[in-house]
Design brief:
Helix 4 runs antiparallel to helix 8 and helix 4 packs parallel to helix 9. The protein has about 270 residues and is of the alpha+beta class. It has two domains: about 70 residues, Alpha-Beta Plaits, CATH 3.30.70; about 180 residues, no CATH class. Strands 2-3-1-4 form a four-stranded antiparallel β-sheet, covered by helices on one side.
Length: about 270
């Protein structure tokens, strides 16, 4: 058996991890995947087909490059049942906060919260594809990924249209207090998800704080909090609209990655 290590610079949260898992799912020669999100490293235990593994990772456009390949005598790996249970947990957290942020975003008039809710939904899609399609054929998983990707694009497009309408129309002031409070709660939820998933990949109980604060989701939460503060200070909805636009772009990028999962892997 071979052990190949990849450096993946854009793998900064569990969502990217699950995208990679789904992309490599159809390669039977892969025996185990070990993710180290803080170090942006993926270790693949496999029996051949290295070129296909490399091309599948490259196809996700996460900047993945092969660091090393060596022989490995390791044959027993951790049972994935615990990881699946934790995936259900983070799916529930992400989908729950999608509902909370969408509802409060619409009520408070904050496009930043609405956009962040779609980012939470995007993560839920990725976890859901992994869980609901367990035991399904690769073709079925690809169809589910395609549907999820297009739905995400449709929602983000609606968000962009609303942002443009608010930029051009009468200024509608969002509730800055709701923006800040809900985003702080979402920040805690994202940190918890990242902690749980990182802890599940290792026997060590510690979690480096730096890994949490380099997560895109955490940065988005901080951006919405900052937008809420700026709305209060300047009495303008523009900070909220700007942050909402940026987050919708992130959501679209995630949707395009999910759509890549709907394409058959080369080879």
């Amino acid at each position: 058996m071979e052990k190949t290590v990849f450096h993946i610079p854009q793998m900064d949260c569990p969502s990217e991890e699950n995208l990679i898992r789904l992309r490599l799912d159809g390669i039977a020669e892969i025996k185990h995947l070990a993710f180290d999100i803080p170090q942006r490293r993926l270790t693949v235990h496999h029996e051949g087909r290295l070129s296909e593994i490399e091309s599948s990772i490259a196809d996700l456009n996460l900047g993945g490059t092969r660091v090393s390949t060596e022989q490995s005598e390791e044959v027993q790996f951790e049972e994935p049942a615990k990881q699946r249970k934790l995936l259900w947990t983070v799916l529930a957290i992400n989908f729950g906060f999608f509902a909370i942020e969408m509802a409060t975003g619409l009520i408070s008039g904050s496009m930043g919260l609405v956009a962040d809710s779609l980012d939470m939904l995007a993560d839920s899609f990725v976890y859901g594809i992994s869980l609901f399609a367990v035991g399904a054929t690769l073709a079925r998983k690809q169809r589910i990924a395609t549907l999820a990707g297009y739905l995400q694009i449709a929602l983000a497009t609606i968000g962009f249209v609303e942002v443009i309408r608010r930029f051009l129309g009468v200024e509608e002031m969002p509730d800055f207090a709701t923006m800040i409070v809900i985003s702080i709660l979402a920040l805690v939820a994202n940190g918890l998800c990242l902690y749980l998933l990182q802890k599940s990949k290792s026997n060590e109980a510690h979690m480096q704080a730096s890994a949490i604060f380099t997560s895109n989701d955490v940065i988005i939460n901080l951006g919405v909090i900052a937008a809420g503060v700026l709305v209060y200070l300047f009495g303008s909805n523009k900070p909220d609209l700007i942050v909402g636009t940026i987050v919708f772009m992130v959501v679209l990028r995630g949707a395009l990655r999910i759509l890549r999962l709907g394409k058959p892997a080369d080879g």
